[in-house]
Amino acid sequence: MREATKRHYLMCPPAHFEVSYAINPWMRPDKPVDAELAMAQWERLRELYLELGHEVDLIDPVEGLPDMVFAANGATVVDGKVLVARFRHEERAAEADAYRSWFAERGYAEVHVPEYVNEGEGDFAPAGRRILAGTGFRSDAAAHEGLKAFFGLHVVVLTLVDPRFYHLDTALCVLDDETVMYYPAAFSVESLAVLRALYPEAVIASREDAEAFGLNAVSDGLNVVLPETATGLISELRERGFVPHAVDTSELLKAGGSVKCCTLEIRR
Ligand code: ARG
């Protein structure tokens, strides 16, 4: 029996969302983005979390930071400890301080800004008492020692090899403490062997579903929110006893992000 547990999320409304630079292969500054539609799609996602019984906090969007809607990149929070992001690209650098202040102002005791580049939950996926840590494009491999020391959790390093799947959360999703879904071709041969050994029962995504950002999903242990175009994953999840909730994130996809990117989980 699968069971949902109540979650606490932090989201950022896409008030200043646009694609004005390209820092991943999905971003095309020459292609228009429908800002109103982006807001409506984001609103729907927030409402869905509330309908599922979760708590959603908001952080104020900052003008001039069009990618700030991708809250997952702002920090990693486990056991109430906050590891703040340090962005790879100058275009997003100032987001880190907005997230640092948000947590500091709300009395989180340990809010740490590390030296190494890390893009929060974009690359770090807590899974029970372990953290799956992606590297290859954004977060430094050097981050992993610090990650282990800060949280006191076991860290499993996973190397990404396809630039379209530049963050771990575009290639893998934690469904519950024991179950993940992932796209094999996004990982190095060594990392794939690690994943196969750790999760022999994993849900495997097809290329089509991975390209539809189907792995950029959010699970509460039962309900899995994911892009509606990931049809293969939607039926596979249902067969495995999960309850998929499909949403349209077409505008956010133009920046190379979807459901998970918009959602930072606060774990107490
Ligand atoms: N345009 C953003 C970037 O390239 C998208 C971030 C998506 N976030 C994520 N968690 N994968 O940084």
TrEMBL record:
Entry's EC annotation: 3.5.3.18
Transmembrane spans: none
GO molecular function, one term: dimethylargininase activity
Iron-sulfur found in the keyword field: no
The entry's keywords: Hydrolase
Pfam families to which the protein is assigned, alphabetical: DDAH_eukar
Class in the EC hierarchy, top level: hydrolase
Keyword Hydrolase listed: yes
Entry-linked InterPro entries: DDAH-like
Family, as annotated: Belongs to the DDAH family.
Protein name: Dimethylargininase
Species in which this protein is naturally found: Streptomyces racemochromogenes
Gene: ddaH
